[in-house]
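Entry for the shared binder. Reason: the reviewer on the internal report wants the predicted structure included alongside the sequence.
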Amino acid sequence: SPVPVTLITEDMIKASGAKNLRDLLMTFVPGITPLEGEECNVSMRGIYALSQENILIMRDGHRLNSYATNSIAPDYRIALNNIKQIEVLRGPASSLYGNVALTSVVNIITKSGSDVNGLRATYGMGDNNTYKGEILFGKGFIDSEILIWGSLYASDGYKYNISPDDEDFYGLIKKDGTMYVDGYNNKPAFDFGMKYRWKDLTLTLSHQHGKRVQAYNSLYFYSLYDYDKYSKINGTKPGRSVTTTNAIADYTISLNDNTSLSASLSCNFEKTDIYSVLGDSLPYPYSNIGLVLHPTNPYIKDSLIISRGAFCVQGWDNVNVEGEIRLANSYKLGKAKGTILVGAQMGYFNSHYNYLSIGANYDGVIMTAINDENSVYKNGKENSFSVYGQIKHYFSPKVILNGGLRYDHKKRYDDREMNVISPRMALIYIPNEKWNTKLSYAHSYVDASFFYRASSTLYLGNTDLNPQHMDSYQLSSTIRITPNLIYNGNIFYNHSSDIMATNIGSQRESGILDMVGLESIISYKDKNYFANASVLFQKKAKARNYSSTGSHISAIPDFVCHISSEKEIDKLVKGLWFGLNLSYSTKQVGQMSGSFLFKNGESLANMPYEIPSSCLLDLGLRYNEVWGELSFRCYNILNHTYRLGGHRAPILQQGRNFLATLSINLH
């Protein structure tokens, strides 16, 4: 690969005790740090947005990120039980994958039917009314195989009782309240799917849903709210609910010994409902909801006065169809050899339905606008076309040139056009089997999402938004110190421009950010022991109009270290494994954002904050046998109180919590 790669195997997933994809990425991928927000969110090398929309997440080479918002929350809507391995390209990858591959690419490789060869059922439970269920079935035949998976997760979340005198209290009205951290309930997060292969044809169908309970109300002035009082709207309670259905066909054929042709066709259906609490109690003049939601509409802005149990729900349905074709050829030129890959991609996006409802008294809808440009946005269609090529040329077994170029064209819903060229070049030197080094340059981009560009309310859409860009320079080396011990180090410099502002209600290109950093991974593995340490040190080199304080990026630590290890205690009981995770991060600094952030009657907008360094310890036991597996994991065992920053204010995270699971194998 032309850029540094982190490989996460099935054994590493088990050893980590990770609950979801974000846990996995934080543990093993240096550069990725967690954030708070409306959804489960992460940053990569200091770049982040209101949701996870700068990292391309794929499953078997197909995009999972929304085509309307560019985002995908790396939470329980992505099953872990069907994963064979995860390949993470650290750095820009638009030259091959195009839009959204700004800072990195996460490609989830699922198992084949023959990898499973049977049925595996899992049940788990923990405190805070946490439950999970999983099923995995796979079977291989002569010319075909099938894989079926299912995953369910529900939790009330970790409960905190907050009083007006507490550090974590926000709001205008001094009243005791309750907040829940990482709650997924009233409709569980799920991922169901099937993959069937017959000879060279693979068909995949999946259906996913996710919605996290927000610690504070998500709109208007920040405050606690009574989650249980609000009625279900469209089958869900407050939060950002996203349901997707994907149908994919892949076909690969060998034309001759040196040439292969592959083609794919995918169709994605997405339904989004953003159920935002405006406030349990709204004192005048903050009860004038219409003025906030419709600042430019004279017919609505003065007509919605709500004082109690106020909420709004905005939602949309969209469909995306995408086709791709690739041709790969291997060649020899004397003693030199290489491979050439060329491809083309076409896409069609249609956001055909949207609505906005405003309600009061916790359950009464008093106004609804459907398919109206004053509701969420004006419905629209967009078309895209891309061509790309890459070459991997071996001058000798020790020297490799890896280069790529991609051209992306998009015709936006308002007839404006986007054109981006993404080049990449890398020189790879492999002096022997124990050492290799790479020097690379790459350019990447992420186009401003349809939601940001077309939105007419809440986020104040801006049709003039341009794509965000990044130029990255990386020097990495991998050294096999012993047959079991491997070290990977990477020095990077990223220059980002036209970055989107991270504060809510201000979707504007906010300037530039230059980051420099050092990433290190050292791993050891033998038959009875596994250990992995990932270390990140990063610093702001330059910034303009991007959320930062001094040399620190808001809500992003400068130094992060994750250690994950697991040891088989075979002298005690064969098949019994003891696991340990240790996570340390330095302080976070930043500024409160949002004009409706209050405490003790005073606005906290632009007020600085500092979150102390944190050290978290997880411990677990796992007993593995032919019949199945039994595991118990305790997270944050020291009950350390810590917070995460984000686009508004620091938010408390989970204290000590546990999860026990039982898996049964049927062959």
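Summary line for the report: The longest strand covers residues 308-333.
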